Amino acid sequence: MRRTAYLTLVVLLAAVAGCTSQTGPEPAEGSEAPYKRGSGVLRVLAGSELADLGPILAQAETATGVRVQLTEIGTLDGIERVVSGAASADQDATWFSSNRYLELHPNATGKIDVSTKVANSPVVLGLRTSVARELGWDAHRPTWSEIATAAGEGKFTYGMTNPAASNSGYSALVSVAAALAGTGRALGTAEINALTPRLRPFFAGQSLTAGSSGWLADAYVKRQGGDAPVDGLINYESVLVSLNHGGKLAEPLTIVHPADGVVTADYPLTLLSGASEQARTNYAAIADFLRRPSTQRRIMETTYRRPAVPGVPLADSLGPLEGGLVELPFPSRYDAATALVTGFGDALRRPARTIYLLDVSGSMRGARLDGLRSALLGLSGADTSISGELTRFNGREQVILIPFSTKPSAPRRFDVPETNREPALDRIRGDVRQLAAEGDTAVYDALVNGLDLARQLDAAEPGRITSVVLLTDGERTVGRSFTDFQSYHAKLPARAKAVPVFALLFGEGNVGEMTEIAALTGGRTFDARTGALAAVFKEIRGYQ
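Structure (tokenized):
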């Protein structure tokens, strides 16, 4: 909790029953007091994973008179809006999966007020039942060290979100680092750097990445039964249990709760400092509703998140666990928390290979080309914001630019080293500044070139996670058609088919075809028709 003036805090704590400071017992469902009331709208900046609470929030509006208006935002961008003060201009509260990283930021002081923990979900490992049985983890809870060793020895593969984009991936990174350190205390920057050699085997097993926990789960489902299946997922327990209940898995997941501990998301609904009195009243009403045992039970039954209040029995699918769940220590300093993310990208993860197919046809002249240059320069280090620093091109990454217009240009390849990255980044910046717009739009010739190049490079160096980014502001005017591309893609070998294409919806581009390309290749679309192109390029980084 961030403190404002003492009297204001006392009044607010008295108004918000069930906030993080409360330790007393909750009333039984049958004896619940009347709901607190408010009126109007509570504007909340929220993570995308909270969309599944829609039915609960509809019930909240009926009970309290307050409509919760969620504005979806990525965690890093959300933190940036809060610490800059921009969030308070049009929002009353935030609702991320965790406030730990936000609260460490040196500029967060005075930006957030009281918070209310709404639910709990630890980040754990889900493995195909046959794989878990083979490893003996269906009967034995392994430690993170055992999990890391098995992953490094190639005994299983897994998907995990990018720690620079998603809390579930960051929580997994914190968990394995804290567990391997074995100190029982929050890690410092020096300890994190020393852990790098011991962490590398763990991430050798990662074969699927994503920028959000939900998209990761969907991608896992799509990869079942193919020639390049993934054995498991590191994700929120709630997501894994939901997959088991969703009827889409060819083989259920055995959920593995590491014996030495986890990092848990607690979904704190957090009032922003300076919120109006009406917003405070509305916040108190919604917080009260969400903490009621009856609501906690509905949240658990519909989203598989654990209750945040005592006295609500766990569903069979969530426990009990022998030995319980140990909470591992989170970094206590902002520099250490950030060092974990940058160290992951530069030294730990399987290195990325990113192929950018860049439309530089005549219609891109002017502001559109300026926006494209700015976005790529930002990824090359020009963007010094929180999200910019954590989504820049990483050490060991292979960046390939293929500008195209009437025909694709020759690929321009840049290998960014693990250390002393500036010379390579300077070359990227120099190349980007020389981009010029003219000619027609050979979208599918460029896409075929990009995927052919991905296949060749992957054959020569198969240890990378490869993806293709397609930016075009118009319809194809020359070269192969979409139908031609479909025929080409159908004949690709399995590994090449698994290369995702992330297509940007931009300008007058064909939305239908871009959506089909993403679906066909296991990628996704990103809407760049409104807002800054740089923000979309940073969002894509979570999936590469």
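The chain is about 40% helix and 15% strand. Confidence is low (pLDDT under 50) at residues 1-29.
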